[in-house]
Amino acid sequence: MTDPILEVEDLNVYYGKSHALKGVSLSIDEGEIYGVIGPNGAGKTTMLNAIAGFVDYEGTIRYRGTDLATVNPQQIVRDGLIYCTEDRDLFPFFSVHENLLMGAQFREDRDAVQDDLDMVYELFPRLDERREQEAETMSGGEQQMLAVGRALMSDPDMLMLDEPTLGLAPVIIQDISDALERLSEQGLTILLAEQNSTFALRHAERLSLIETGEIELAGTYEEFHDNEYVREAYVGVH
Ligand code: ATP
After folding, report:
1. What spacing in Å lies between the alpha carbon of 13 and ligand 1's midpoint?
2. Contact 154/78 with Cβ under 8 angstroms?
3. d(CA 201, CA 116)
4. From the centroid of its chain, how far is CA 53?
5. Can you tell me the distance from the alpha carbon of 19 to that of 22, in angstroms, rounded to the nearest whole number?
6. What is the ipTM of this complex?
7. Which of 94, 108, 107, 96 has its CA nearest to residue 145?
């Protein structure tokens, strides 16, 4: 047994008096896709924001054994834990190509950066066709691909994806789905936060269900798939 790549222990986040995350714990193994599902406002984004160091929290978050409270968000990125936010945070007036290069800004090995550019363009041919197009003029799905592509340019060991399918057409969701499968086959660890439980269940090996800031259920894909409450409340609604 190797140690988990990410360990979250008794995580609590408060927004003023509002207790947004209430003692959340989970651990993610290297190379797995871990799904976090739950309704709007349950606390999924808050959890990813805490891991990325964007919000204050109580509790412990360890990445490869390092307590993330002791490192700044930039160092977390350098250590290979990359966050693709729900807002995508693209540079709207930069081209596709420039946005991708921004993802590699902390890297020095130019050959490796070029290899990853080639890999991203091969993974998402739509980006290849639109290298010079400004990010803000891309469709929602293309922007999501660009956000994932830019995250890949940071050479992640672990990728956190917040709602990558939100608002996207089924055909685009399929493209994102295919890309995740390929990345997972290459050994990338993925933490996937999704309201779209069907999508999360399609990919995740293990999952947690968060409701009102608490983990209500955690288990394997099979346990979630067979769980009556999950099926009734969450599956088939997308
Ligand atoms: P969604 O799928 O809608 O993004 P979520 O599961 O990611 O939902 P969060 O965005 O983490 O949920 O929100 C959890 C709770 O914390 C919600 O009640 C939300 O209103 C609240 N919240 C989130 N960010 C802030 C903030 N900056 N200030 C105050 N309250 C916040």
Report:
1. 10
2. no
3. 28
4. 14
5. 7
6. 0.90
7. 96
- 57 C-alpha to center of ligand 1: Å? 14
Q: Name the residue among 231, 224, 209, 206 with its Cα closest to residue 24.
A: 209
Give dist(CA 56, CA 182) in Å, integer.
Answer: 34
Cα(160)–Cα(90) distance, integer angstroms: 16
The alpha carbon of 189 and the centre of ligand 1 are apart by a number of angstroms equal to 24
AA letter at 13: V
Residue 28: closest CA among 213, 151, 191, 143: 191
Rounded to 5 degrees, φ, ψ at 66 are -90, 130
For the chain, how many residues are written?
A: 238
Say how many Å lie between the CA of residue 109 and the centre of ligand 1. 38
> Could you give the 3-state DSSP secondary structure of residue 95?
strand
Nearest C-alpha neighbor of 208 from the set 190, 199, 221: 221
Give the predicted TM-score (pTM) of the model.
Answer: 0.94
User: Per the structure block, which two tokens stand in for 30?
Assistant: 């290297």
Q: Which atom of ligand 1 is nearest to the CA of 18?
A: 30
Tell me: the pLDDT tens digits for 52-83?
Answer: 999 999 999 999 999 999 999 889 999 999 99
Candidate from 12, 15, 55 with most ligand 1 atoms within 8 A of CB, to mutate: 15
